[in-house]
């Protein structure tokens, strides 16, 4: 605390010990101001306000006592809680610091997660909109195609039925293995595995080296089993004549 002697007459003749009076007034003013505020406010952010309020109150009391002293400046250099509660105040300060740290960490996490979530939401919205447009376009195309088929069907029902049947069979048989068996020649079965033949042709056209080729499947030739005993006797006669 800093003060000046504003009125020397009052300072010398109206008070026995003006300096001691200033000390006591200062302690009384500080106690009153601190008692009207919370301890956290006094220890942390309220030091300047406490000093200003104490200076104002001290000046009022000194003028009432006619000490002739004017307070020029009051500064709170240090503020500590009582020793009996020092540990509790340290715990409170640590808890406040942890709270501020967690708040900052939470805010940083929110600043990182919220933009990503918004971006993901925007992307999903755009994908959903694209899917909706695609489905609508496909539905409109199928409806237009159906209307055209109906118009052509009304002109030639028989031809359109045959065409629809062939198209459907082509779609069904495209992704399935196909084997043709002919039983009209009696016991001579014509076994034609079309999928194996297509693989063989594909391997030959690609020119793969080192890969095992698909084994050829023997096909019985119609009429091979029609050899008669007469033909066998003719072969035997020829063999005898050669001897």
Key traits:
single chain; 243 residues; mainly alpha; Tetrahydropterin Synthase, Chain A; two-stranded antiparallel ribbon; two-stranded antiparallel sheet; 67% helix
Explain what you see.
The protein is mainly alpha-helical. Among the domains are: 2-78, Tetrahydropterin Synthase, Chain A (2-Layer Sandwich), CATH 3.30.479.30; 177-221, no CATH class. It is 67% helix and 7% strand. It is built from eight helices and four strands; from the N terminus they run βααααβααββαα. The strands form two sheets. The chain has a two-stranded antiparallel sheet. A hairpin with a 7-residue loop joins strand 3 and strand 4 (190-193). Helix 2 packs across helix 4 (47-65) and helix 5 (86-155) crosses helix 6. The longest helix is centred in the middle third of the chain and has 70 residues, at 86-155. 8% of the residues are buried.
């Amino acid at each position: 605390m800093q003060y000046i002697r504003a009125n020397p007459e009052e300072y010398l003749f109206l008070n026995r010990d003006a300096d001691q009076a200033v000390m006591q007034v200062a302690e009384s003013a500080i106690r009153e101001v601190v008692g009207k505020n919370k301890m956290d406010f006094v220890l942390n952010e309220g030091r300047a306000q406490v000093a200003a309020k104490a200076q104002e109150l001290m000046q009022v009391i000194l003028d009432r006592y006619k000490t002739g002293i004017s307070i020029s400046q009051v500064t709170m250099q240090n503020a500590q809680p009582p020793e009996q509660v020092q540990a509790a105040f340290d715990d409170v300060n640590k808890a406040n610091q942890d709270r501020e740290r967690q708040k900052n960490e939470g805010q940083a996490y929110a600043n990182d997660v919220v933009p990503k979530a918004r971006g993901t939401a925007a992307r999903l919205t755009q994908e959903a909109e694209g899917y909706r447009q695609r489905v609508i376009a496909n539905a409109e195309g199928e409806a237009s195609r159906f209307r055209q088929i109906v118009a052509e069907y009304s002109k030639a029902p028989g031809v359109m039925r045959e065409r629809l049947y062939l198209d459907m069979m082509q779609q069904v048989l495209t992704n399935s293995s196909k084997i043709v068996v002919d039983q009209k020649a009696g016991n001579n079965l014509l076994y034609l595995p079309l999928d194996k033949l297509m693989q063989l042709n594909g391997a030959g056209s690609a020119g793969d080296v080192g890969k095992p080729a698909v084994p050829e499947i023997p096909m019985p030739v119609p009429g091979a089993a029609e050899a008669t005993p007469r033909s066998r006797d003719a072969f035997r006669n020829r063999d005898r004549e050669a001897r």
